[in-house]
Structure formats: structure tokens, C-alpha cells
């Protein structure tokens, strides 16, 4: 009888908890489950991020230039965050916004859309196993795309989770060790090397590779 009552009590507590979860809290928990599946045991810093709730967005629509809002009119904006984008050739750092809608990702510079990536064509998402905030968005080889997108995000776990949830491509996220290849454009590829050091930095090495410390 005691064992039966314990099971009933646990069921009752679970039922009470589930009925008290708000819609916003449910979305938060669902995103955290995805983050766990993608990053747990794979990327440094994940355990420290668990108790930090994901925000709905890092910037609001009124923080986006009205011209950009006109260009993406008709697509509901789901998430916006500041990022640093690295040029594919010289790897120069550029301040950008990453805007995620229900069907596309946009890399935005002030009043311009620099690149649009439809989720349906997204080939993959890569990040390293270290504590850096680098994420590479892999795109198809066609005339519409300039090449893969190399970004640095302050809130890497949140940003990658939002992207793969909206794109419904959780299985395409790869956490790599050592290095990764990315497409520069016109059939050319670049190499990104991840290493450990005393100071965080991202730079173009003498051998032409993008080095992330």
C-alpha cells in the first residue's frame, strides 16, 4: 500500500506541475531540451549555461532599420541578436545583426540585407567544442549564395538553438574539434582552426587560415 501511495503521490505532483506550466515556460523548456541534445557533453560552457533562461529575442523590431523591415515584410520576426560576421576572404570582422524569421535567416548591415538563407536550403550548422562563440551556417553551392556564413555570437547556445528549432534541423548541428572547413564561394574552401590560449582572439594566420583562440 505504501508503494502504491508513493506512486500516486508522485503522479499527482507531476500533474500539478504540468498544469501550472505557462505557454512561455513550456517553450523555454522545449528549447532547453534541444540545447541539451545538441551541446551536452560536447561543448565547453554548456553546463554553466543551463540555469540561464533563453530570451525571446536580444533586440526588438524597433531596433531594426525600417528599410530592412520593409524588405522582410510578411515574415514574422522570431529572434534578433547582434553578431560579428567575418569576411570570407580577408576575415575582417564586421558588426551585423542576425535576424531569424519563421522561414529564413538574414544577415543585416544597417539598412541592407547582406545575405538571406532560407531554412529549406540550410545545409548545416557548425560550432566548436571549445568556449568560443563561433558558429558557421553552411549554405548550398548556388548563384544565390555568396558562401557559408561565419559569425561570432555572445549567446552561442541560445542563438544556435533558436536557429535549429526554427529551421527544424536539429540533426544538422555539428560540434567539431580542432578545425572545420567552410565554403568561401566559387568552389573555394577555407579552413578554420580552433585552439586554446590565455586570451580570446580571432585572426587570420600567416598560412591564410582563420584561427580562433
UniProtKB/TrEMBL annotation:
Q: What GO CC terms are in its UniProt record? A: myosin complex
Q: What InterPro entries does this protein map onto?
A: Myosin_TH1
Q: Name one Pfam family in it.
A: Myosin_TH1
One Gene Ontology molecular-function label: cytoskeletal motor activity
Q: Where are the transmembrane segments?
A: none
The segment(s) forming the TH1 domain are 43-213
Per its record, how is this protein called by name?
Answer: MYO1H protein
Taxonomic lineage of the native organism: Eukaryota, Metazoa, Chordata, Craniata, Vertebrata
Q: Which gene encodes it?
A: Myo1h_1
Amino acid at each position: 500500500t505504501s508503494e502504491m501511495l508513493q506512486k500516486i503521490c508522485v503522479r499527482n505532483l507531476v500533474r500539478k506541475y504540468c498544469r501550472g506550466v505557462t505557454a512561455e515556460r513550456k517553450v523555454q523548456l522545449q528549447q532547453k531540451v534541444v540545447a541539451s541534445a545538441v551541446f551536452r557533453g560536447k561543448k565547453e560552457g554548456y553546463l554553466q549555461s543551463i540555469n540561464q533562461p533563453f530570451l525571446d529575442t536580444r533586440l526588438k523590431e524597433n531596433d531594426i532599420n525600417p528599410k530592412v523591415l520593409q524588405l522582410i515584410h510578411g515574415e514574422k520576426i522570431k529572434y534578433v541578436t547582434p553578431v560579428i560576421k567575418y569576411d570570407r576572404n580577408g576575415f575582417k570582422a564586421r558588426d551585423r545583426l542576425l535576424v531569424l524569421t519563421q522561414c529564413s535567416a538574414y544577415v543585416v548591415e544597417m539598412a541592407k540585407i547582406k545575405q538571406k538563407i532560407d531554412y529549406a536550403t540550410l545545409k548545416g550548422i557548425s560550432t566548436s567544442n571549445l568556449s568560443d562563440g563561433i558558429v558557421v551556417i553552411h549554405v548550398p553551392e548556388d548563384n544565390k549564395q555568396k558562401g557559408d556564413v561565419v559569425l561570432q555570437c555572445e549567446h552561442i547556445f541560445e542563438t544556435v538553438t533558436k536557429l535549429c528549432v526554427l529551421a527544424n534541423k536539429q540533426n544538422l548541428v555539428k560540434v567539431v574539434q580542432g578545425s572545420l572547413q567552410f565554403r568561401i564561394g566559387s568552389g573555394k574552401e577555407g579552413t578554420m582552426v580552433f585552439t586554446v590560449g590565455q586570451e580570446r582572439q580571432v585572426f587570420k594566420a600567416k598560412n591564410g587560415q582563420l584561427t580562433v583562440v
